[in-house]
Amino acid sequence: MDIFLTFNVSPDLLKKCQQITGTNVTVNTEGGGDIQIVATKYRITENTKLIQSIYASLDQLGLKNVPAGVTVCKNPGAFAQSMCEQIIGLLLTSVKKIIDLNTKTHHRIFRKEIVDTLRGKKLGIIGYGEIGKKLASIARGFEMEVIAYTRSQRDDPNVNQFVASIAKLMGLSDIVVILLPLTNKTRGIINADALAMFNGKIIVNTAKADIVNKTDMLWYLKRFPEKYYLADVWWGEPIMSEEPPANCILTPHVSDQVPGDFEDAVLKACENAKKFIEGNPQNVVDPGEYY
Predict the structure, then answer these.
(1) So what's the pLDDT on residue 290?
(2) So what's the pLDDT on residue 31?
(3) Across residues 77-97, what is the average pLDDT?
(4) Taking residues 31-44, what's their average pLDDT?
């Protein structure tokens, strides 16, 4: 079976893809073919057997018209290290008051203030996949207590407590990090009811903006100016139709913009394409969850 990449890559990366899969790999930005390794688009033909994303998320693909006989796979763990670094960077920027203190110091206001620490904080991770596991490991290095919500609980030395509901996690956590995929079940799942349970101070979203109900979150931030929303995503990006509240720290979806990460994600997707050819694909999803 031939493999097609629906995005442009360097000749060197294309060669690595061929070495991993052991078969012919070519670029066809229009899509089509037996096996398609995709970023944001694909094209179903009568021969299509596999749609393999280079991302852990799939909502950007529009999977409604995928026939029942076509296998669709996500790519969990892609960009995980960079996303975790983005989360920690946002958290440290907030608790250490870096933006405010930098502004004051540039205005020659050299005045010490009390800042906070991550040490001892209860970190709630909503969605404990590959990225969540890596974040938990990093958090333990900061001596944080980790609480995790996932559909499949498991033994993990980096997790102090698994919980069975988002509401319970919100009530126990000082800091909440959202790492869920965007599906028809998770869209807007962080809403007024969930926010009403939150007793902590900081919510971080580097996953997808629409997991959080926009109206509810903006009202919450206005109602509680001492709380913070840290995000690498925004509703309707790249267009921002509203002025972000002052208690937001935002970056423009850059957690996957680290040189080398793209290549790693493509090669990881190729490894699963090879498993598909061998009859043992991993990370198969139901396209119906994404529309």
Answers:
(1) 86
(2) 85
(3) 97
(4) 92
What's the pTM value of the predicted model, to 2 decimals?
A: 0.93
DSSP of the chain: --EEESS---HHHHHHHHHHHSS-EEE-TT--SSEEEESS-----TT--EEEESSS--GGG--TT--TTSEEE--TTTTHHHHHHHHHHHHHHHHTTHHHHHHHHHTT---------STT-EEEEES-SHHHHHHHHHHHHTT-EEEEE-SS----TT-SEEES-HHHHHHH-SEEEE-----TTTTT-BSHHHHHT--SSEEEE-S-GGGB-HHHHHHHHHH-TTSEEEES--TTTT---SPPPTTEEE--S-TT--TTHHHHHHHHHHHHHHHHHTT---SEE-GGGG-
Domains and CATH numbers, the chain: 3-77+258-290 (3.40.50.720), 80-250 (3.40.50.720)
Answer whether residue 2 shows pLDDT above 90. Answer: no
